[in-house]
Amino acid sequence: MRRDNVMTGQSMVGPDGGLLGRLFFGGPRASWRSKLSWLLEPSAMDVIFAVRSSLAAVLSLLIAMGMELDSPQWAPLTVWVVAQSSRGESLSKARWRIAGTVLGCCIGVALIAAFPQASALFFCCLAVWIGLCCGGATFLESYRAYGLVLTGFTSAIVATGAIAQPDEVFDIAIARGTYIILGVVCEALLAVLFMPTLQTQARKRLLDRLNGAFQTVRHVVSDLVSGRADAQTQGQVLTDLMAANARIEFDALEMGPRTHAADHAHAALAAMIMVLARARGMALLEPKNEGAQADVPLPASLYADYDIARQHIEACAHPKRGDRFRFKMTSRRHALEAVENGIRSCVGILAGWLVWEVTGWPAGAGFISFVALVYGLLATRENPIVASTPFLKGALWCAFAAAIYAFWIMPAVTAPEVLVVMLMIVMTIGGLAARKPATAGYAFSFNMFLPVLIGPGNQSRFSEEAFFNNAMAFLVAVAFVCWTYRLVLPFRVDSHMRRTARWVERRLKALGAPGSRVTVHQWLAESASSLVRILRNAQGVPQPVRLAYMQTQFRAMTMGMHIVFLRDVAKDPVLPLSARRGIQVFLRKWVQTGTDATAWAGMTEGWLLRQMQGKPFEVQETLQKAAISLRILAAERPQDVL
């Protein structure tokens, strides 16, 4: 038995990979070929991205060394921060990074100037400022949020770097800004060289994405009306639609200015979401026939939404001169999570300062800089706890690779050409890892911090002590941030689901108020984005609970759409006053009691149908639609909606 264990290696690592397997690979051991498929079987686009980003990083490093900057390793870090799969993402992230850097440098100089000899006040103000940046970023979307958190950690890097030399804070701020702009320019240059015919490719990607979403929605709507689509299928379609919506901004940037393709694309996706909500409501009115598998004819009302989506897709494919169309999809703002995010970051910076103050650690300033930087990188993640685990593992791999380079490879480098070759090898591997979801979390920290830990310079003398202090400050900072994310107001998906349910209930009641200006598209977009966020983080929630929650949210989306329609009908001056008053009474009860008001839906429907007699066709058609909306609301009542 002992011989078998030795031969299989189980005595050292265990059947599930042991401690090292769980630490570096995140779970039980799989085949090496499957784990390294991202390296052994990369696609052409993966290779192009990895080589392009690596060349940009090395180019920025060589230029920084040629300019004899004091810390050239920060330039390639910037390249990996802004390097994205598409040119539009890189452009969006680069411009917000430059804006955040400039503002952060100004704040860093101001903090040093205000508190040159008062460390307690300095760190309290720095902690509050970073907390405000991380909390405020929760209210923004895409790379606008990144720009705000970048302002926070840039100010921390500049300010902590000048603690020992406050008179040189301006020079330090200028140097940090130079590194970042240099990295952005190098990444942009290589992206242009590696991406010819950018506008044509961007338009093709956008149209392929929209047409694919349109076909998927058509298929699911047919299943919805016939009763064959479950909550899991609806949730997956919504996830795909919101993912496509998040990519529109980047495609529009690649397509160039003076185009409204992004507005038309958003409108097309909003029409598709409305089709899903309308189809679900129509399915409630269809007679239930257990075991029926035949396709049910689609209601005529759905074709109007289909036509709207097609028209906007056509406008993306063939833009018209003088087009002034505007459309924007909004998402929910998480006030409580913003407060928690800000408090967590503020407490973390203060706790890090106390660690430095108590221990007198020589690398304490670097430790604080790394803490602020990691907080900024993880602050805008939906679930920082989940994101921090692979970030820590990638940091361990980064320190391991940096040690090999610092002790054995870099001392033997005698020419820039050799430096390029040696760095290109490991950076290309990191770039390939960044393209795969299973390894992207590791590559996130590995790619950015590898040049910082290696620390190549022009005339700097390599010191083993300096490397260990820098690497230790980095690893302790990452572990410290991961620890605080788990202890200080940790993100819990179950509490987030309960908060979202309460938000939906309040928002749903408020839709019926006469003064409400929430549109159907706004309601559906906010609800869909909120639900999709939960689905992305609800892997640990039992499936029956998750499916029941999804059904509840789908009902709320459908009901909200019909409440907004009834609210608009109640304001139509063409309708008889008696009919409008009947709808207004129902809406008042809705605002007061919420979904309990559906008990009055049948009575109000009968009242509207009686008002149709002898009225013009247009009035009868509007009242008929309002009656159908009330019938759908009544059909939802036995479900115990919220």
Could you give a short description of this structure?
By secondary structure, the protein is mostly helical.
C-alpha end-to-end distance: 59 Å
Oligomeric state of the chains present here: single chain
Radius of gyration: 29 Å
The major sheet is characterized as: none
- Succession of helices and strands: HHHHHHHHHHHHHHHHHHHHHHHHHHH
How large a portion of the residues is in β-strands, by DSSP E? under 5%
Low-confidence stretches: 1-26, 289-294
> Quick one: overall form?
elongated
Q: Roughly what percent helix? A: over 70%
Structural class: mainly alpha
According to DSSP, the number of beta strands is 0
Mean pLDDT: 83
Total number of helices: 27
Describe this structure in words.
- By secondary structure, this protein is mostly helical.
- The protein is 76% helix and 0% strand.
- It has 27 helices and no strands.
- The chain has helices at residues 2-8, 10-13, 18-25, 32-35, 37-40, 44-66, 74-82, 87-114, 119-137, 142-161, 169-194, 198-226, 231-255, 261-285, 300-317, 335-359, 364-379, 384-409, 416-434, 437-454, 464-487, 493-510, 520-537, 543-569, 577-593, 601-611, 617-636.
- Helix 10 (142-161) packs antiparallel against helix 17, helix 14 (261-285) crosses helix 23 and helix 14 packs across helix 24.
